[in-house]
Amino acid sequence: MAEYDVDLFVIGAGSGGTRAARIASGHGARVMIAEADRIGGTCVIRGCVPKKLFVYASRFMDDFEDAAGFGWTLPEKPVFDWPTLRDAVANEVTRLSGLYRKGLDGAKVEVREERAVIEDAHTIRLETSGQKVTARHILVATGGWPSFDPPIPGGELGISSNEVFHLPALPKRMLVVGGGYIALEFASLFARLGVAVTVLHRGDNILRGFDEDVRTRLRDALKEAGIAFRLGCTIDRIEQLPDGARRAHCATGAPIDADVVLVATGRRPNTKGLGLAKAGVELGPLGEILVDAASASNVPSIHAVGDVTNRVNLTPVAIREGHAFADSTFGGRNWTVDHGMIASAVFTTPEVGTVGLSETQAVAAGHEVRVFESGFRPMKATISGRHERTYMKLVVDAKTDKVIGVHILGHDAGEIVQSVAIAVTMGATKADFDRTVALHPSAAEELVTMRTPRNS
Question: Which residue in the list 122, 166, 249, 440 is annotated as catalytic?
Fold first, then answer.
């Protein structure tokens, strides 16, 4: 008889967990995976996929308005129907979840759609059936969960990004609490769907950790789009008014009334109640599983990938971590994920795309930097009449001439940065950018035509 029931038990069927399960099974491992919610995880079910579809819907408002400058006349004013969008997105999420399940079945991964809890270093208990399964290796890939930190009186009257996709009706007024990318993406898209949006954030500016020039320009662009900001402000409590609306009482300034309060103040690793402490697994201050470069915890048989480790909380990172773990543990190919140069995007309107170090980060790391930047009105706006600006910035190490940071604010910024990230990851220099022939007319050509450093 085999020493263990399975070679690998994966807790959490999101992007990282399913990738690890499928790759491990392909290497010949006996694999079982458990998911307490819908298969697909945060990204597919309640994160980047449905959110991006909502973003697409919100941008049609600009397209309808811009069309007039190009000779198009709409017979009547476009009308937006929230239930149509909400239900279409829900159907697409269901389809994708089914594909994830089909992929697991095709890879001969045994699926348990119930909550799993760790009993010890090699034992998992399935809560609904009560079945206990022994495993040579356990992989925790349970992701993150929205948090209201610190908790406040009436906090239960708010909703999180989990529930925002299922609102019964489009609110007239929305208060978004938070200044990170999740808060701003929802603030941006709901404002374009016709909602009066206020963003309340305790910091003095939005998007902490991003390049300062991008932060300021994005805030100004969102204000131009009609979003109100209350910065340097916190909420003391939330109450429900007689008509069902919410009133947020702030530490400073007047209270804010809204039909919906969306709390997007961050996410915490989803480790509560998993039995990790019982198994002796060390956790960090936010509840994250502490792992090494190979995604191994202090308990040799227990690993973790994705947001539950609070390293780089992005879906493609979780996928690569899961793949690296499975290849290294079951495929005889040892490799680890380099977390040092990862492109990311913020799907506000305008969009943010970035890879590498911000100017502030580069200086703090000891680089002598040269900064190249370009701000311009995109070609489309010259005829549409829209007050829109695109901004691009290169951060260059003056000694090596390497481009160590690229930051873009504008249409398709994420698409542009994905391509330029290849060059930056390979160590391209500013001279490499300069000798690249521009593609004209395009916004991206600015990246290879900037010649004069700022303040030179």
Answer: 440
